[in-house]
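Budget justification aside, the reviewers requested a transparent look at the raw inputs and outputs of the sequence design task funded under Objective 1. We therefore reproduce one unedited record. The lines immediately below are the structure tokens for a 198-residue chain.
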């Protein structure tokens, strides 16, 4: 099996089920779509053809084997369709469910508890990113590498001798003209460097 899918076998997922799903998912994934987590149903008796939930950064994909495992139904829901996600822990596993904005209820039972918690957390993170796109950008900015001081390019600076040239003339000259008429202060262009920057 490919190395990239071995990370989905940490929480008691059936390796054969993961291998079947991932081999078919390679053709279904969109551009820039990444698998975040795969949860596999585990019923109390022997589960020959388990249902699965695949969480990607773009959608939730429900995988249900058909015809004795020879074919598979894929149903997907994009994150902007999802209204809310829910986990109900039972004695023998958990039930993961979600509702859409068009009042469709989807649930899969007998998901191992740790897998259900992981997909629930992943779903909440994706919905949070969708609702607060600025927050995800802020966290991405925090994770970006810092620029080394060696890479910063030095630029020549010029010495300014006449500070009136660099100051905006409309806002300050009108203000200083009003002040100089009433209080006898110097105009901005008449101030020395020491007077401007004490």
């Amino acid at each position: 099996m490919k190395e990239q899918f071995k990370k989905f076998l940490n929480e008691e997922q059936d390796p054969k089920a993961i291998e079947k799903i991932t081999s078919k998912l390679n053709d279904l994934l969109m551009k820039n779509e990444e698998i975040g987590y795969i949860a596999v149903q585990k019923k109390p008796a022997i589960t020959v053809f388990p249902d699965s939930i695949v969480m990607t950064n773009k959608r939730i994909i429900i995988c249900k084997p058909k015809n004795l495992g020879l074919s598979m139904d894929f149903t997907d829901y994009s994150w902007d369709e999802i209204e809310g996600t829910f986990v109900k822990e039972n004695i023998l596993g958990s039930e993961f469910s979600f509702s859409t904005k068009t009042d469709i209820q989807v649930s899969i039972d007998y998901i191992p508890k740790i897998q259900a918690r992981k997909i629930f957390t992943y779903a909440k993170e994706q919905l949070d990113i969708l609702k607060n796109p600025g927050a995800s950008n802020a966290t991405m900015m925090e994770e970006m590498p810092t620029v080394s001081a060696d890479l910063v390019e030095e630029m020549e600076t010029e010495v300014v001798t006449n500070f009136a040239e660099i100051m905006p003339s409309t806002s300050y000259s009108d203000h200083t003209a009003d002040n100089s008429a009433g209080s006898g202060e110097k105009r901005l262009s008449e101030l020395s460097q020491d007077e401007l920057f004490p």
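The chain has two domains: 3-131, 162-192. The longest strand covers residues 82-90. Computational costs for records of this kind are itemized in the attached budget.
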